[in-house]
Design goal:
32% helix; elongated; alpha+beta; nine-stranded antiparallel sheet; 31% strand
Length: 172
Amino acid sequence: MIKKLFLVILFGFFSSLLAQTGKLSLENQQKHSFEQPEKKTDSLKIIKRQKHVREIAGNWKMLTSESWAIREPSDSVVGKMITIEPNQISFFELYPKAKKWSLVKTEKIFFSDKENSTSNPLLMVYSNKEVWQYFIDEKSGNLIATYIGEENENGISELVCSNPQLKYFKLQ
């Protein structure tokens, strides 16, 4: 009889304790059910972006379809190159009589968090709001830079077809 009474009191104590923590945790659980996936997605997005920048990092020289040999001697550009570092992309040009590459501009690496049709978290946005996608072609090993569109307050205005592409090969 004493054992039963003790078990009933013990059960009642734990029931009330669980009810109180359950009530609090139910509210917290609802909060976390909405916050948790968002935080998880954001942290995965950051990791994916860092990995992507490491993969495309390096010095890349632009491939051109026109032959440099048939250009007329002038101040025209004979080569273009980009250097991708963890925080920035530097754009260089080479002129016919120059002995070194000339820095044209530097862009901080910012990834767009705006809505886009593919939900691609790896779209980079430049300071002039142009949105570009960089990826390495598996077959050729070349870096492909594709112009996607422009970022604005409503999202990204994307080109549907005939997106300009720039191709680069990696310099050693």
